[in-house]
Amino acid sequence: MLQQDNDILLEMAHDIQDTYGYIPEREITQLAEKFSEPRAKIYGALEFYSMLYTEPTGKYIVRICDSISCFLHDSDEVLEAVQDYLELESGETSDDKLFTLEVVECLGHCGEGPVMMVNDRMYTELTSGRAIEILSECQ
Amino acid sequence: MIELTIDNKKVAVEPNTTLLEAANEINVNIPTLCFADDLTVYGGCRLCVVEVEGENRLRPACNTRARQGMVVKTHSPRVREVRETLFELIIASHDISCELNCLTCSRKSSCQLKDVAEDIDVSRMRLEPGDEEEEYDRSSHSIVREPNKCITCARCIRKCEEIQGVGVFAKASRGPETRVTTFKDKGMGNVECTNCGQCVVSCPTGALHEVYHMEKVWDALYDEDKHVIVQTAPSVRVAIAEAFGEEPGTIATGQMVAALRRLGFDRVFDTNFTADLTIMEEGTEVVDRVVNNDRLPVLTSCSPGWIKFIEHFYPEHLENLSSAKSPQQMFGAVAKNYYAEKIGISPDDLVVVSIMPCTAKKFEARRPEMSDDVDYVLTTREAARMLKSVGVNACDLEPEDYDEMLGVSSGAGDIFGASGGVMEAAIRTAYNLITGEELEEIEITPVRGLQGLKTASIPVTEDLTLRVGIAHGLNNAKKMMEKIKAGEEFHFVEFMACPGGCISGGGQPINTELTWQEVRERRIASLYEIDENKEMRRSHLNPKIKKLYEEYLEEPGSAKAHKLLHTDYTVRGVPGA
To answer: Which of B41-45, B348-352, B355-359 is least confident?
Structure first.
C-alpha cells in the first residue's frame, strides 16, 4: 500500500467509526475491496490503532491514564474505584452496552493528573469520588 | 562496483547490495531471524545489526545498502552485546520455558531460534517469558497455530501475501502486544486460507505446524482387525531422507518402502499409480474438451491448495477445472472399492493412509464430497517422525519394491511432484490419445524449470498445436488467471499451489541451511532422474492401469470411472476480494 493510501484508509476508518461507533466487519471487507488488499491486512492496520474499534463499544468509552505522572498522583486508586463501580476490567464493555473501560497511556495532561476521558471530554485532577460522580451522570 | 571493508576484509560488490549479502560473499555469517531469501526485507528482528564506522547507531545488515568506503564490524564487542540482548528479548516473547516444550515441539530438529542461539553463543536468559495464555488456533483441518511460540517475525505474513498472493495473516496491535492473527481473529479454518502450508515451512519456530494424524495412524496400525495400507506421493521419496540427515534430493524410494513395512503397514502402495490413473482420466477429458472446444482452457485439479484458491478467488472459473480427482483421492476411491473387493474385505475394515508433501491434502481428504476414501494424511515430516520413533532409519534399509496391485507406476507419475510435471505427463498420453502414436521426444523441456509462469506450444497434428501454460506458487497462479481472464488462449493450464510444485510443499522437511531455491532444484532434479531411469515413462502403458480398466473401470471417462474418480467444486468466494 502507498503511504497516500494509508492516509486515506485512516480517514475513511474514522468516518466509519463516527457513523457506527466502531468499524463493522462488512465495512472492513469493503475497505479491502476498495484498496485491493487482503481483508486481513486492512484488519491488521485498523488494529494497530488503539482508538479504532473493530468490535462494538459502549455508548461511553472511559479512558483512564496510568502513565507515570498520573500514577504518581494515585491514578491506581481512581482506576480501582471505577472498575468496582462499572464492574469492568480494562478492555471490557458492560452488558447494557453503556460503558467500555480502557486503561491507556498518556492523554497529554501530565500536570493535572490523574486524568480520565469519557468519549471526547477530558476530566483532570480527579479523585475516586469525582470520577464516580461523573460516571453516574452518564446515561 | 562498490568497495567496502567488512571485519577487516575488503570486498567489492554491485551497487544496491545489502551488507548482509556483502558479508555472505566473504563467508561472514551474520545471524538473522526475520530475513528469508525469498521474501521482502522486513528488518523487524534486528538480530543482524552491525557497527558502521563513523555512525552512532547500529544498522540492520539486511536493510542497509553497502556504500563506498564503508567500514563494517559484524561481531564487535558492542554488536555482540546488543545482539545477545535482542535475542533475550525475542526469547522472552517465545514460550520456551518450563515444561521442556522444546522436546515436544514440531521444530525440535529444525528450530531457527536454536540455530541463532548457537551462532551468537548465547550465555544468559535474564527475562522471564511472558505468562499470557494464548489459545491455539485449531480451526483448520490442515494447520495448527500456536501463538505462544510466535516471535512476530512476519515471515508467514509475507510468505502468504508475497509468494502466495492470499494474505490470510496480519499483524495486530503493537509493541509487546503485537500478535499475528487472521481476519477478525476468525482462525485459519474460517478464512480464505488455502491450507498450502507455505507459512509452516517459512516459520522459524514451532508456531505453525500441521494438524497431526500420527496418533490416529498409530491406533490403526496397532488395531489387529484393521487392514492398513499406505500410499506415498511422488515428492516424498526425494525428501524424506533429509529428515534422517541426508542431502536434499536424496532418492530413497526403496528404503522408504522397506521402512513403511517395518512400521507395520499391511501394504505399501504408490500414489504414482493413481497419478498415472489421473493422467488417463484427465488426459481423456482434456482431449475431449479440446476437440469439442468445450470450456477451455482446462485447468488441472491435483493441487488441493490451488483448488481452494480458485474456489475462493476465481469461483467463476470452476467450470474450467478438470473434474478428475487428485491422485491421492483417486487412490482412496480405488482402494476402498476395487482393492477391497479384490482382496475380499469390507471397506470398513480398510484404513487408507497417505504420506504427502502437503498440508492441504489433509483438508482435501476431509472434503464432504470425497466420502472419507482417504482416512488419514501424514506429511513427509510426520512419516519421518513415526519412523524415527520405532528406530527405523528410512535411508539405511535394503530397498524393497512397492506392493504390486496399486504400486506400479510410470515415470510420468514421478514427475507430478515438479512444476510442469503433470503437464508433461499429460502431454505424453494426450499425444497418444489424439494421434494413436507415441510422442517421440518424451522430455518436454519448455514446461520444466522454476520460472514462475511457463507457456509452450506443442505441435500434435497438422491442425492442432496444444497451447499450454504452467503456474506454480499462488501469486503466479493469480497472474495466470488474470492472463486467462484477459483473453490469452490456452488449451490446458497446470497449477500448483506451492512454489516449484509439490517437492516444496508445506509438509516437506524443513531445511534451515540451504536456500529454498537450492532445495527445490535438487529435489526436482531427482524426480526427473527417477523418470529418466524408468523404462516405462508413459501413463497409458502402465500394465496395472490397463488391468484396472479391464477388470473394473471399463474405460477412461466411463460412467463407473466418473462415479469413483471425478468430483465437483464449491463456490466459496472471499468477502471483499
So the answer is: B41-45
Using a CB-CB cut-off of 8 Å, the residues of chain B touching A22 are none
Q: What is the mean pLDDT of residues B469-495?
A: 97
Active site residue B322: yes
Q: What is the pLDDT of residue B577?
A: 61
ipTM: 0.84
CATH class of residue range A60-136? alpha beta
Mean pLDDT calculated for residue range A94-98: 94
- Cell of residue A33, nine digits: 475491496
Domain ranges across chain A: 3-48, 60-136
In whole angstroms, give the CA distance from residue A77 to residue A87: 15
Please state, rounded to an integer, the average pLDDT across all residues of chain B. Answer: 95
Give the pairing of strands B267-270 and B465-472. Answer: unpaired
Which A residues, 24 through 83, put their C-beta within 8 Å of a C-beta on chain B? 25-26, 28-33, 37-41, 43-45, 47-48, 50, 54
Helix (H, G, I), strand (E, B) or coil at B434: helix
B230 burial class (0-12, 13-18, 19+ CB within 10 angstroms)?
Answer: buried
Whole-prediction pTM? 0.91
Is domain B143-210 in CATH 3.30.70.20, yes or no? yes
Which residues share a beta bridge with B284? Answer: none
Instruction: Write the CATH number of the domain with boundaries B214-565.
Output: 3.40.50.1780
pLDDT for the residue B99: 55
Residues 6+ apart with CB under 8 A from A117: A61, A62, A63, A104, A107, A123
pLDDT at B100 over 60: no
Mean pLDDT of all residues in B389-415: 94
Tell me if residue B53 is catalytic: no
The span from the CA of B356 to the CA of B256, in Å, is 13
Instruction: Name every residue whose Cβ is closer than 8 Å to that of residue B366 and which is 6 or more positions away in sequence.
Output: B141
CATH of B2-92 given 1.10.10.10, 3.60.20.10, 3.10.20.740, 3.40.30.10: 3.10.20.740
Q: B172 and A43: CB-CB below 8 Å?
A: yes
Interface contacts (A, B; CB < 8 Å): 58
Catalytic option among B3, B25, B132, B369: B369
- For residue B309, the distance in angstroms to the closest alpha carbon of chain A comes to 13
What region does A108 belong to: left with phi over 0, alpha with psi -120 to 50, or beta?
left
Q: Note if B282 is an active site residue.
A: yes
Quick check: B275 and B412 in contact, CB under 8 A? yes
A contacts of B168 (beta carbons < 8 Å): 38, 40
Helices A39-48 + A3-20 axis angle, to 10: 80
Domain ranges across chain B: 2-92, 143-210, 214-565
Dump the DSSP string for B291-352.
HTT-SSSEE----HHHHHHHHHH-GGGGGGB--BPPHHHHHHHHIIIIIHHHHT--GGGEEE
Phi–psi pair at B510, nearest 5 degrees: -100, 120
Closest CA to A131 of A79, A71, A72, A60: A79
Q: Which has the closest alpha carbon to A38: B143, B159, B486? A: B159
Listed as own residue / partner, the contacts of B424-427 with beta carbons closer than 8 Å and 24 or more positions apart are B424/B448, B425/B275, B425/B279, B425/B539, B426/B279, B426/B282, B426/B283, B426/B286, B426/B492, B426/B494, B427/B458, B427/B466, B427/B468
pLDDT recorded at residue A2: 67
